[in-house]
Specification:
Number of helices: 2
Strand content: 25-35%
Distance between the termini: 22 Å
Structural class: alpha+beta
Helix content: 25-40%
Strand order of the largest sheet: 1-3-2
Number of strands: 3
Shape: elongated
Radius of gyration: 12 Å
Number of domains: 1
Order of helices and strands: HEHEE
């Protein structure tokens, strides 16, 4: 799943803003997507990206993050 983030990052140019979204709204998919959220936070801490916006789902009641809008910095 984090390969989705890596691929989007590699395809973006510095300054590009892009979205990463969970594949489906199932609890399993949303739970798995949290690894992408964690990887994005690591990349943010390393100065590679800026997290513009995150979206929390409301269907499961667990408030998983199901989408991230990111800007490539380096």
């Amino acid at each position: 799943m984090t390969s989705k983030l890596t691929k989007a990052y590699e395809n973006a140019k510095v300054g590009d803003t892009f979205w990463i979204r969970s594949d489906a709204q199932s609890v399993e998919s949303l739970s798995t997507f949290q690894a992408v959220v964690h990887a994005a936070n690591v990349m943010r801490n390393d100065g590679l990206i800026h997290v513009v916006r995150s979206h929390q789902e409301s269907t499961t009641g667990k408030r998983f993050i199901d989408a991230l809008q990111l800007t490539k910095l380096k």
